[in-house]
Each structure stands twice: as structure tokens, then as C-alpha cells.
Hints:
By secondary structure, the chain is an alpha/beta fold.
Amino acid sequence: MNFNEVQKPSRYVGGEFGLPDMNMRASSTFCMCFPDTYEVGMSNLGIRILYYILNQQPQLRCERCFAPWGDYAQYLKENDLPLASIETKMPLKNFDMLGFSLSYELAYSNVLYMLDLAGIPFRSKDRDENWPLLIAGGPCVVNAEPVADFFDIINVGEGEEMLKNIALAYDENKGKMSKKEFLQYVNDNIEGVYVPVLTSFEQNENGVVTKINTPHKTKRVYVRNMDESYFPNKAIVSNIELVHDRAVAELFRGCANGCRFCQAGFIYRPVRERSVEKMTDICTNLIANTGYDELSLNSLSTGDYSGLKQLIQNLQPLVKEKKVRLALPSLRLDTFDGEFAQNNRLSSLTFAPEAGTQRLRDVINKNVTMDDIDSSVISAFERGFSTVKLYFMMGLPTETMEDIDGICELAYHIKDLFYKHRKNKKDIKINISCATFIPKPHTPFQWESFDSYENISQKQAYMRQKLRNRNISLSWHDYESSTLEAVFARGDRRLANVIEQAYKNGAKFDGWTEHFKFDAYMQAFEQFGLDYKQYLRERNEDEILPWDYLDMGVDKNFLLRERHKAYQAKCTLSCNKQCNACGLQREGLCNVNR
């Protein structure tokens, strides 16, 4: 191909440093597909881990494919070429299995975009044994119903063992079973597998689910011992700058804090840490094998890692001798370390109070106080920091204009603290980012409504009026894209028709502001006689939810108790301080069992 015709050929050529050996004699082939650009997909740690695991199996060859940008897609169409893998340029339609990582609801149209470019039928029912088996995984599959009709198998939970077992089962039974027989086989024999064709739904005239017909509940699987789980001691070093272009090591999975709006905090329970010794080895090998000068210590709440100080001490030879900068994303206000931030040359700091008043922070169980906020920002300002980014949400349950006013007051309060404690003549820059709250499945707020455009617009206008200050900037998440995310997050199978029609109407790269076409979806909803606002409503607590066939380990009754506590503005302590009997204590891995 002539790569002179595309803007960023490095997205497609491959050949990066750190690639595993490809088994060209493998009996079965797998392509890891990510429905976004190379730069976004290669920043995904899960993709990297699974890619290395599958390529360690002698029977398998795993390759990669990412959603091509418009210039490359146009080239493929003009030259009648199918979408192919990066490594061997094999057309996707010739692979045995395709695995899609679903990390974001607005990437659904890109799944169809990639299948279309590959010449593969969209619907599972239209693909027989001659087509690749389509597998989905990732955080979005905790309610995969909007895209369930497109996939043959959906992996619920952490995929290290599950995906490997599916691929090896496919290889073992290749040519021996029909597609129907194989789907029944993995459904019966591999935990965490959800086969959409084996489950059906009954709904009333309003679209409310009245019955789920399924052979059994699908139980989420997860790694029980992080020290024994696979983590690559090297990484693919891309030829193009990634969204997160650095070495990444995973400290632990899960989160003990229980913020009621946070889906990740519930679907990745319980907390499972890697030991300091294991992390030291991983980090040392990653830097030695990649040459990166930045190392990110990742988790949902990095400051909660029990061995963080010891690990940072162990990594000082990397910091001092190899000039490696450590990054600690996902730091909470109550675990912020100003000395660490200063020593690692951070140019700005990011905090997430999420709500502007203590009452609302208690409602969402944020467990961050004004004392935490004050001590963190003062510690930063005394060390010379002058740029702060603050994340908030609006549209939260029980929110009033007093809470919105609280965001504004907090911004001015932080500004005043800066000028009392600054160590230089710089002015402060406060960047406030406000997202619209989206109720997500498997959280205490999964029953809540999504706030209206009128309400959100009123709150935004109020904040613009109150925060007219040269030191403070405001930004919002686009309401229409948040609306669509809210629809898909709690959607049902009827939405497959909407997604397919919207794609035909021109929808793709919906997560990119310049490409998002809300009208393409509105036309599709109208065509199929669906009211998108029906998906944004408050749900009854006794209502059957489209994702109730899943057993995530967290009891629905616990989520209800947490919802009721939210409306009383009562907090729940961290799992590190007490067991809250969410249901996972039965698994023997939680704090109460240690």
C-alpha cells in the first residue's frame, strides 16, 4: 500500500519495538480489535496484557487492529481493500476470532464501522462457521445488551484466563463443532461467558423488562491473586505518540472507597494488591525493556496502595540514576502527597471533589472533607504549584442550586488559599471541568434519572455568571454525547437497531467531538419508534433491569441499601476500615477475611 496517502502511517504499519514473536504456524488466529484510533487503543493496558498472553500459547497467533481514521478508510474503499491486521496485513474476515474491547459506550458505532470495512456481517445470526467468531470484553459489557446482537460471545469480568480458555477451546474444537454447538459448549463450560443468543427478554408496552429467559446467571470472573497473574515485563513501544505514552504498571484492582456514582468501584471489587516486591520487579523490568522515562503506577485509587511509600523508595534508583519520572494518577484528596508531587516535577495538579458541598459529597459517599481539600491544596501551594484542575459532576441525585453555588464558592476559596500560601509571584490558574452525572449499572445510582437539558443548562449559566474571573476557567462535557452515553449505559437489545441505523446515517467516532452526529441517532430512534428519553428515566426499585442476568458478586440489596443511605446523606466507610457486607465477603478475599 502507498502510505503517502494517509496522514499518520505509523498507525497502520506495525513493526514496533517490543512485539512478541508471531507464530506463523499457529493452528488458530485471533485479532485484538479496538474501536478507536491506534493512539487511544495502544494506551489501553488490558489490550497489552491480553495480546501478550494469547501470543504465549503455541496454538495461537494474536494480532491487532484499530479503527482507521477517515483518510485510511477512504483509501481502503477506493482500492477495494478489506480492513486488515497490523502485523501480517491479514484481512479481519480471515481470522478465526475477533476480540473487541468495549471501554466506552460511544465507541459502539465504531464496531460496526470496522466490521463494515472488513466485509463482515454485523449480526451474529447472519454469520455461520465461515465467519470469525466475535467476542466482546471490557467494562461496557456489564450491560452489553445494546450491542449483544452483534456478538457471539461476551466475556464478563477480567479476561486473562477467560479469553485464553475460549481461544484454546476454539482451537481444540475447530472443525469438530458447528457454531451453535461451540457457543453452547463455552456457555456450559467456561465461567464468565455470556452467549447472547441463549438469552431472551420479555418486555411490556413501555419497554420495561418483565422476564429474562436465560439458562443461568452469568457470574463475573476475576483474578484472585495478583502476584500470580500475568503481567508483561516489557511493553510495545509505539512509533507514534500515544494518548498515554509511558510505561504503565498496575498496582492493584478494585477500590475500597465505594463512591456511589462510580461503576468501576463496584464492578472491579474486591481490592486485590500486588506485593511491593512484585511491583518493584515489574517496574524495573518495564523501564529496562522499554527505555521510557516516565512510569505510571496505575489503579483506581493509587494513594490507597498499602505499600506505596515502600515502593516509591524501592524505585528511587530508577528515579535518580535513569531520570525516570513517576506518575501517580487517581490520587484522592485525602491521600495527596505534596512532597511526592514536588519531587516528581509535576507541572499541575488534578483533584476531584466531585461535588461542591459536604452534604452532596456525603450523598455520593465521596468521603472527602473541607479539611482534606484545604490541606491538599495548601501543601501544593507551599511547594510552588500554581495550576489546579478540579473535576465536578452536575445532575447528581438530590442536587440543588446550593450545591452548584458550592462549586463556585470552593473555587474562590482555593484561589484565596493560594494567595495566602504561594511561594512565588505566579498567579493561580484554576481549571474547572464539569461532567453531567450518568447513572451506570451495578451502582447504587443505577435507578436514578439523567438530568434534563433545561436543568443542566440553567446550572451551567449560573456558574458562568458566578465564575467570571481571569484566574478561573470552565469547561463542560457535551450534553448530547452524555445523553447518548446514558442511553446506552442502561439500554436494552432494541438499541442494536438504533446503533446500526445511526451508523448508516453517518455515525462513527462518536467519542470525538468533531465527528459526533447526534442527529444520526435521533433519526434512528424516530425510525424505529423508540423514545430515547424512556432510557433516561428513573427506574423503579422492584423493576427487572436489562442486566439482571449478571452476577457481579455485589448484591442488588446492598446497592439498594446504599441508595437509601444516599438519600439520608449517610456515608459508608471504606472497605479498608470495615466490611460493609456487599456480597463479595462470601468470596473470601475481602478485608474482613484478611
